[in-house]
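Need residues for this backbone.
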């Protein structure tokens, strides 16, 4: 919107009114990039307001490897001046630019399954999942051992650590809501291959001991699969490829008399 040499340019979240000379400074912005020796300056994209006395002109960047990026040139002027000046320029990513993801520290990028033979992974300092072995952690079986002088581990899982593990296992592939569990005829808690865990997770989790099922995995007591120890194969299932042979329906005919007639055809003609 233009009025008395002032143009209204939208720039979120406000609507700024800037001098028309800033909007018309396209050639000035392009020549500034040329004077700086910048290459790959393409078509003009548009202008946006940076306040009442400044605006940014953008041009497509045609540099190899910078698809979607834009050259940005900021021009400014005093309300009493009749000419703009160039404040700065930069190569910036546009809305469709391919940019690198935010940097994440290596210790936050590690995921389950990344650890390979020979790799070392120390727990972070003050890990909330661990408490010193001499501190009661709420698990009776662990606490009883830890209180014996000279025995026990340097650290054990805290209540928070156990709850986190239980939540992962409950929601994982061997939890009660998995597709395998929903299709199973029975649950692991009633299976002979189910080996319950010790400690506070005893009532909810165990390890599968069936080598043909979830062997060695922690499974929820409500998980289940088709290899349950009480599984019985259905009887009479399926249909034979051929009809059954019924020898009671076969008529047995003696061939001894006919054999004698075939053996002496001459005597048969005389008769």
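Answer:
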């Amino acid at each position: 919107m233009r009025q008395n040499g002032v143009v209204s340019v939208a720039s979120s979240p406000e609507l700024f009114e800037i001098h028309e000379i800033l909007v018309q400074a396209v050639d000035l912005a392009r020549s500034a990039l040329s004077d700086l020796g910048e290459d790959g300056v393409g078509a003009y994209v548009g202008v946006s307001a940076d306040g009442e006395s400044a605006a940014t002109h953008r041009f497509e960047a045609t540099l190899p490897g910078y698809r979607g990026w834009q050259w940005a040139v900021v021009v400014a002027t005093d309300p009493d001046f009749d000419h703009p000046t160039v404040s700065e320029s930069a190569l910036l990513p546009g809305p469709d630019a391919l940019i690198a993801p935010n940097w994440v520290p290596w210790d936050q990028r590690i995921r389950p399954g990344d650890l390979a033979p020979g790799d070392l992974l120390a727990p972070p300092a003050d890990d909330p999942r661990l408490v010193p072995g001499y501190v009661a952690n709420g698990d009776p079986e662990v606490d009883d051992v830890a209180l014996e002088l000279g025995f026990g581990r340097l650290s054990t899982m805290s209540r928070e650590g156990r709850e986190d593990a239980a939540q992962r296992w409950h929601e994982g592939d061997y939890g009660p809501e998995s597709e395998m569990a929903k299709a199973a005829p029975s649950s692991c808690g009633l299976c002979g291959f189910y080996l319950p865990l010790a400690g506070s997770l005893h009532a909810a989790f165990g390890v599968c001991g069936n080598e043909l099922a979830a062997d060695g995995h922690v499974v929820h007591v409500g998980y289940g699969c088709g290899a349950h120890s009480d599984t019985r194969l259905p009887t009479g299932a399926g249909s034979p490829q051929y009809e059954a042979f019924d020898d009671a329906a076969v008529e047995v005919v003696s061939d001894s008399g006919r054999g004698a007639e075939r053996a002496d055809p001459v005597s048969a003609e005389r008769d």
